[in-house]
Write a structure and sequence with these properties.
The complex is a heterodimer of chains A (114) and B (109). Chain A is mostly beta strands. Chain A is built from no helices and eleven strands. In chain B, strands 1-9-8-3-4 form a five-stranded mixed β-sheet, with no helix packed on it. A four-stranded antiparallel β-sheet of chain B has the order 2-7-6-5, with no helix packed on it. Classes of the chains: A mainly beta (114), B mainly beta (109). Chains A and B meet through strand 5, strand 9 and strand 10 of A and strand 3 and strand 4 of B.
């Protein structure tokens, strides 16, 4: 099992540029989660999907952030335009079913916005 | 979900049992206690969870007090690779996990 796959692992961009983070969940998992981790705010849930449908996006900081899950094996988190305060590590996680199951995290994407 | 309180840091000698406490005095009857850990520069890793009975798996044991207001995660024979931040989370389901600051556990040789 390859685990949750995220790409890129590191991203450096300039303020105002569009950033797209990608995630491939574990095959067969029905739920997918996007988190952001910073020193100041810790690990925060941004959005999660069940069966490719967004269930709760209350953690998405603002309209510059959007997430999609076009199929069961792929999700993207997009930031447009990016700002320096978006610099963080972004984690994707998946879990086997809709509720009550553990989450399996990917290695994260370290984003630096200059 | 109930708030949890953990010591910010702990030390343990290699080979000894590491006992990590967690207070969740406002936990409700349908909330589980989850433990995750995060090794430096990696994503969080699930360890164990429980409702009211003690639980054990290949990684750790979870002891929950009878009143469910606190719990202890036990790593029976800590190794250097167990150095990590350990998060205790009280939640109704695994979908909206709120990670606090956790306990930074350092295993010393």
């Amino acid at each position: 099992d390859a685990g949750v796959i995220q790409s890129p692992r590191h991203e450096v961009t300039e303020m105002g540029q569009e950033v797209t983070l990608r995630c491939k969940p574990i095959s067969g998992h029905n739920s997918l989660f996007w988190y952001r981790q910073t020193m100041m705010r810790g690990l925060e849930l941004l959005i999660y999907f069940n069966n490719n449908v967004p269930i709760d996006d209350s953690g998405m900081p603002e309209d510059r952030f959007s997430a999609k899950m076009p199929n069961a094996s792929f999700s993207t988190l997009k930031i447009q335009p990016s700002e320096p305060r978006d610099s963080a590590v972004y984690f994707c996680a998946s879990s086997p079913s809709g509720s009550g199951e553990t989450q399996y995290f990917g290695p994260g994407t370290r984003l630096l916005v200059l | 979900d109930a708030k949890t309180t953990q010591p910010p840091s702990m030390d343990c000698a290699e080979g000894r049992a590491a006992n990590l406490p967690c207070n969740h005095s406002t936990i409700s009857g349908n909330e589980y206690v989850y433990w995750y850990r995060q090794i430096h520069s990696q994503g969080p890793q699930y360890i164990i969870h429980g409702l009211k009975n003690n639980e054990t798996n290949e990684m750790a044991s979870l002891i929950i007090t009878e009143d469910r207001k606190s719990s202890t995660l036990i790593l029976p024979h800590a190794t250097l690779r167990d150095t990590a931040v350990y998060y205790c989370i009280a939640a109704r389901g695994a979908q909206k996990l709120v990670f606090g600051q956790g306990t930074r556990l350092t295993i010393n040789p």
